[in-house]
Design a protein that fits this description.
Elements lengths: L2 H15 L1 H13 L6 H30 L8 H23 L4 H10 L1 H18 L3 H7 L1 H8 L1 H15 L5 H31 L1
Bound molecules: protoporphyrin IX containing FE.
Protein backbone atom coordinates (compact mmCIF):
# COMPACT_ATOMS: atom_id res chain seq x y z
CA UNK A 1 0.00 0.00 0.00
CA UNK A 2 1.52 3.34 -1.05
CA UNK A 3 1.33 6.50 1.07
CA UNK A 4 -1.13 8.02 -1.39
CA UNK A 5 -3.42 5.00 -1.32
CA UNK A 6 -3.33 4.99 2.47
CA UNK A 7 -4.22 8.69 2.62
CA UNK A 8 -7.08 8.05 0.22
CA UNK A 9 -8.32 5.11 2.30
CA UNK A 10 -8.20 7.17 5.51
CA UNK A 11 -10.20 9.96 3.89
CA UNK A 12 -12.71 7.42 2.60
CA UNK A 13 -13.07 6.01 6.14
CA UNK A 14 -13.74 9.48 7.56
CA UNK A 15 -16.32 10.16 4.83
CA UNK A 16 -17.99 6.78 5.44
CA UNK A 17 -17.90 7.37 9.19
CA UNK A 18 -19.83 10.60 8.76
CA UNK A 19 -22.66 8.90 6.83
CA UNK A 20 -24.78 8.05 9.94
CA UNK A 21 -24.59 11.69 11.06
CA UNK A 22 -25.45 12.97 7.57
CA UNK A 23 -28.41 10.56 7.37
CA UNK A 24 -29.64 11.62 10.79
CA UNK A 25 -29.38 15.32 9.86
CA UNK A 26 -31.15 14.74 6.54
CA UNK A 27 -33.94 12.79 8.26
CA UNK A 28 -34.34 15.45 10.96
CA UNK A 29 -34.17 18.61 8.87
CA UNK A 30 -34.80 17.45 5.32
CA UNK A 31 -37.66 14.99 5.58
CA UNK A 32 -38.69 15.48 9.21
CA UNK A 33 -39.20 11.71 9.54
CA UNK A 34 -37.56 10.77 12.82
CA UNK A 35 -40.71 8.97 13.92
CA UNK A 36 -42.77 9.18 17.09
CA UNK A 37 -39.75 9.51 19.39
CA UNK A 38 -37.14 11.60 17.54
CA UNK A 39 -34.98 12.16 20.64
CA UNK A 40 -34.62 8.41 21.12
CA UNK A 41 -33.74 7.92 17.43
CA UNK A 42 -31.00 10.56 17.68
CA UNK A 43 -29.58 9.13 20.91
CA UNK A 44 -29.77 5.56 19.64
CA UNK A 45 -28.07 6.33 16.29
CA UNK A 46 -25.25 8.34 17.89
CA UNK A 47 -24.70 5.87 20.78
CA UNK A 48 -24.73 2.75 18.63
CA UNK A 49 -22.44 4.35 16.03
CA UNK A 50 -19.98 5.32 18.79
CA UNK A 51 -19.96 1.75 20.12
CA UNK A 52 -19.69 0.20 16.64
CA UNK A 53 -16.69 2.38 15.83
CA UNK A 54 -15.08 1.67 19.20
CA UNK A 55 -15.35 -2.08 18.59
CA UNK A 56 -14.09 -1.57 15.04
CA UNK A 57 -10.88 0.02 16.36
CA UNK A 58 -10.36 -3.10 18.48
CA UNK A 59 -10.69 -5.42 15.47
CA UNK A 60 -7.88 -3.68 13.57
CA UNK A 61 -4.95 -5.21 15.49
CA UNK A 62 -6.25 -8.82 15.32
CA UNK A 63 -7.03 -8.29 11.63
CA UNK A 64 -3.49 -7.02 11.04
CA UNK A 65 -2.02 -10.07 12.80
CA UNK A 66 -4.24 -12.53 10.95
CA UNK A 67 -3.71 -10.99 7.50
CA UNK A 68 -0.11 -9.77 7.93
CA UNK A 69 -1.10 -6.36 6.48
CA UNK A 70 0.73 -3.92 8.73
CA UNK A 71 -0.78 -0.81 7.09
CA UNK A 72 -4.13 -1.66 8.72
CA UNK A 73 -2.77 -0.14 11.95
CA UNK A 74 -2.71 3.25 10.23
CA UNK A 75 -6.50 3.14 10.02
CA UNK A 76 -6.92 2.93 13.80
CA UNK A 77 -6.62 6.67 14.42
CA UNK A 78 -9.42 7.88 12.10
CA UNK A 79 -11.77 5.14 13.33
CA UNK A 80 -10.94 5.86 16.98
CA UNK A 81 -11.41 9.61 16.55
CA UNK A 82 -14.73 9.03 14.83
CA UNK A 83 -15.80 6.86 17.79
CA UNK A 84 -14.88 9.68 20.17
CA UNK A 85 -16.71 12.23 18.01
CA UNK A 86 -19.93 10.17 18.05
CA UNK A 87 -19.62 9.46 21.79
CA UNK A 88 -19.36 13.22 22.41
CA UNK A 89 -22.33 13.97 20.14
CA UNK A 90 -24.36 11.23 21.86
CA UNK A 91 -23.62 12.69 25.31
CA UNK A 92 -24.33 16.20 24.02
CA UNK A 93 -27.63 15.05 22.52
CA UNK A 94 -28.73 14.00 26.00
CA UNK A 95 -27.67 17.37 27.47
CA UNK A 96 -29.35 19.30 24.64
CA UNK A 97 -32.51 17.35 23.79
CA UNK A 98 -33.43 15.81 27.15
CA UNK A 99 -32.17 18.45 29.55
CA UNK A 100 -32.10 21.66 27.45
CA UNK A 101 -28.53 22.28 28.61
CA UNK A 102 -29.45 22.23 32.29
CA UNK A 103 -25.85 21.48 33.40
CA UNK A 104 -26.56 21.13 37.18
CA UNK A 105 -29.29 18.59 36.30
CA UNK A 106 -26.84 16.75 34.01
CA UNK A 107 -24.31 16.57 36.85
CA UNK A 108 -27.01 15.30 39.24
CA UNK A 109 -28.15 12.68 36.69
CA UNK A 110 -24.60 11.45 36.18
CA UNK A 111 -24.12 11.12 39.95
CA UNK A 112 -27.49 9.53 40.70
CA UNK A 113 -27.89 7.10 37.79
CA UNK A 114 -25.10 4.50 37.67
CA UNK A 115 -25.61 3.69 33.96
CA UNK A 116 -25.07 7.40 33.18
CA UNK A 117 -22.01 7.49 35.47
CA UNK A 118 -20.56 4.65 33.40
CA UNK A 119 -21.42 6.44 30.11
CA UNK A 120 -19.80 9.62 31.40
CA UNK A 121 -16.67 7.72 32.48
CA UNK A 122 -16.47 6.19 28.99
CA UNK A 123 -16.44 9.62 27.33
CA UNK A 124 -13.97 11.11 29.83
CA UNK A 125 -11.57 8.18 29.50
CA UNK A 126 -11.63 8.53 25.72
CA UNK A 127 -10.34 12.14 25.97
CA UNK A 128 -6.66 11.29 26.74
CA UNK A 129 -6.67 8.72 23.93
CA UNK A 130 -7.99 11.27 21.43
CA UNK A 131 -5.56 13.98 22.64
CA UNK A 132 -2.54 11.66 22.39
CA UNK A 133 -3.52 10.09 19.08
CA UNK A 134 -1.10 12.21 16.99
CA UNK A 135 2.25 10.90 15.69
CA UNK A 136 4.07 13.59 17.71
CA UNK A 137 2.41 12.43 20.95
CA UNK A 138 3.12 8.80 20.12
CA UNK A 139 6.83 9.61 19.69
CA UNK A 140 6.90 11.75 22.82
CA UNK A 141 5.24 9.17 25.09
CA UNK A 142 7.10 6.13 23.73
CA UNK A 143 6.19 2.94 25.60
CA UNK A 144 3.78 4.89 27.84
CA UNK A 145 1.68 5.61 24.74
CA UNK A 146 1.09 1.88 24.18
CA UNK A 147 0.19 1.37 27.84
CA UNK A 148 -2.23 4.31 27.75
CA UNK A 149 -3.88 3.18 24.53
CA UNK A 150 -4.34 -0.35 25.86
CA UNK A 151 -6.99 1.14 28.16
CA UNK A 152 -9.30 1.21 25.13
CA UNK A 153 -10.37 -2.36 25.99
CA UNK A 154 -11.56 -1.29 29.44
CA UNK A 155 -13.21 1.78 27.90
CA UNK A 156 -15.08 -0.37 25.37
CA UNK A 157 -16.20 -2.62 28.25
CA UNK A 158 -17.60 0.45 30.03
CA UNK A 159 -19.41 1.46 26.84
CA UNK A 160 -21.00 -2.00 26.57
CA UNK A 161 -21.91 -1.92 30.28
CA UNK A 162 -23.60 1.47 29.80
CA UNK A 163 -25.57 0.01 26.88
CA UNK A 164 -26.54 -3.07 28.92
CA UNK A 165 -27.59 -1.08 31.95
CA UNK A 166 -29.92 1.34 30.16
CA UNK A 167 -31.89 -1.46 28.46
CA UNK A 168 -35.19 -2.09 30.20
CA UNK A 169 -36.27 -5.50 28.87
CA UNK A 170 -34.66 -6.92 25.75
CA UNK A 171 -30.94 -7.48 26.44
CA UNK A 172 -30.22 -9.35 23.18
CA UNK A 173 -28.51 -6.44 21.39
CA UNK A 174 -26.14 -5.49 24.24
CA UNK A 175 -25.42 -9.21 24.67
CA UNK A 176 -24.24 -9.38 21.05
CA UNK A 177 -21.91 -6.43 21.73
CA UNK A 178 -20.63 -8.04 24.94
CA UNK A 179 -19.91 -11.28 23.03
CA UNK A 180 -17.99 -9.45 20.27
CA UNK A 181 -15.95 -7.61 22.92
CA UNK A 182 -15.25 -10.88 24.78
CA UNK A 183 -13.99 -12.49 21.55
CA UNK A 184 -11.72 -9.50 20.82
CA UNK A 185 -10.37 -9.48 24.39
CA UNK A 186 -9.99 -13.28 24.38
CA UNK A 187 -7.94 -13.08 21.19
CA UNK A 188 -5.55 -10.61 22.85
CA UNK A 189 -5.21 -12.80 25.95
CA UNK A 190 -4.40 -15.87 23.80
CA UNK A 191 -1.77 -13.93 21.78
CA UNK A 192 -0.13 -12.57 24.93
CA UNK A 193 -0.10 -16.04 26.62
CA UNK A 194 1.40 -17.61 23.49
CA UNK A 195 4.12 -14.95 23.40
CA UNK A 196 4.99 -15.57 27.04
CA UNK A 197 5.23 -19.33 26.47
CA UNK A 198 7.46 -18.81 23.42
CA UNK A 199 9.73 -16.49 25.44
CA UNK A 200 9.92 -19.01 28.29
CA UNK A 201 10.82 -21.81 25.86
CA UNK A 202 13.49 -19.66 24.17
CA UNK A 203 15.22 -18.86 27.51
C1 LIG B 1 -21.94 11.48 29.39
C2 LIG B 1 -21.98 10.43 28.59
C3 LIG B 1 -23.25 9.73 28.14
C4 LIG B 1 -24.55 10.07 28.34
C5 LIG B 1 -25.11 11.26 29.09
C6 LIG B 1 -25.35 9.05 27.69
C7 LIG B 1 -26.74 9.03 27.66
C8 LIG B 1 -27.52 8.05 27.11
C9 LIG B 1 -28.96 8.05 27.06
C10 LIG B 1 -29.85 9.13 27.65
C11 LIG B 1 -29.34 6.93 26.42
C12 LIG B 1 -30.77 6.52 26.07
C13 LIG B 1 -31.45 5.78 27.18
C14 LIG B 1 -32.90 5.48 26.85
O1 LIG B 1 -33.30 5.52 25.67
O2 LIG B 1 -33.63 5.23 27.78
C15 LIG B 1 -28.14 6.20 26.07
C16 LIG B 1 -28.12 5.01 25.41
C17 LIG B 1 -26.99 4.48 24.84
N1 LIG B 1 -25.71 4.94 24.95
FE1 LIG B 1 -25.12 6.52 26.03
N2 LIG B 1 -24.53 8.14 27.11
C18 LIG B 1 -23.21 8.52 27.34
C19 LIG B 1 -22.08 7.88 26.88
C20 LIG B 1 -22.07 6.85 25.98
C21 LIG B 1 -20.90 6.32 25.32
C22 LIG B 1 -19.48 6.83 25.53
C23 LIG B 1 -21.32 5.31 24.49
C24 LIG B 1 -20.54 4.44 23.56
C25 LIG B 1 -19.24 4.39 23.43
C26 LIG B 1 -22.73 5.21 24.63
C27 LIG B 1 -23.54 4.29 23.99
C28 LIG B 1 -24.89 4.16 24.16
C29 LIG B 1 -25.68 3.15 23.53
C30 LIG B 1 -25.18 2.08 22.56
C31 LIG B 1 -27.01 3.34 23.96
C32 LIG B 1 -28.22 2.52 23.57
C33 LIG B 1 -28.92 3.20 22.45
C34 LIG B 1 -30.29 2.63 22.25
O3 LIG B 1 -30.41 1.44 21.99
O4 LIG B 1 -31.25 3.39 22.31
N3 LIG B 1 -23.16 6.17 25.54
N4 LIG B 1 -27.04 6.91 26.50
Amino acid sequence: MTRRQLAWLRNAIVALGLVPLAQLTARAFGYGDLGANPVQVVQHTLGITALNLLLLTLTITPLRRLTGRSWLVRLRRPVGLLAFFYALLHALSYAALDLRFDWPRLAADIIERPWLTVGFATVILLVPLAVTSTNAMQRRLGRRWTTLHRSVYAIAALGVLHFFWQVKLDTREPLVYATILAVLLGYRVVVSLRRRTQRAVAQ
